[in-house]
Amino acid sequence: MHKDTQTYNNTLQPSDKTICDVLAQEIDKHLPKAENKIWHAHPVWFLEDNPIVGYSKLKNGLQLMFWSGASFEEEKLQPSKSGKFKEATITYTSAEQINTKDLKRWLGKSEKIQWDYKNIVKRKGVLERLK
């Protein structure tokens, strides 16, 4: 796990830290080519400078977000309400809720299905599919 991600996880309450540690370990395991760093104050993994997956602490739990997740066609991932972008999320309140088989499948899809967030500013908010 990247040291900055570990530092982020260590600032959380024990139950939230446990969730984040499991998520980070699974993401690192299944996306070994991804670069992990803190981005906008949260751990995010990138492939070729394009954000793929990350998590953050919310009032109601830990939110795992896939930037292209709305295109995964996965029932458990909730697309954003705006519909403007292609992200989708799931929120966990305990580590026991994490289904590692689902997570592995979603991480596989995150490599195969990507929208170009890296160049969204250049394209004035227009997303283009990369893969």
List keywords for this structure.
131 residues; Aspartate Aminotransferase, domain 1; 6 strands; globular; 6-stranded antiparallel beta sheet
Q: What is the element layout, followed by pairings?
A:
Elements: H1 3-10, H2 14-30, E1 35-39, E2 42-47, E3 50-58, E4 61-66, E5 78-79, E6 88-92, H3 100-112
Helix pairs in contact: 1-2
Describe the structure.
This protein is an alpha+beta fold. The protein has one domain: Aspartate Aminotransferase, domain 1 (Alpha-Beta Complex). The chain is 29% helix and 25% strand. The protein is globular, with a radius of gyration of 14 Å. The two termini are 27 Å apart.
What is the CATH topology descriptor?
Aspartate Aminotransferase, domain 1
Order of helices and strands: HHEEEEEEH
The end-to-end distance, rounded to whole angstroms, is 27 Å
Strand coverage percent: 25-35%
Task: Identify the CATH class.
Answer: Alpha Beta
SS-derived structural category: alpha+beta
**How many beta-strand runs?**
6
| Total individual domains | 1
Shape: globular
The largest β sheet comes out as: 6 strands, antiparallel
- Give unreliable regions as ranges: none
- Which second-level CATH architecture applies? Alpha-Beta Complex
User: Total number of helical segments?
Assistant: 3
Query: C-alpha Rg, in Å?
Result: 14 Å
Question: What is shown here, in short?
Answer:
The protein has 131 residues and is of the alpha+beta class.
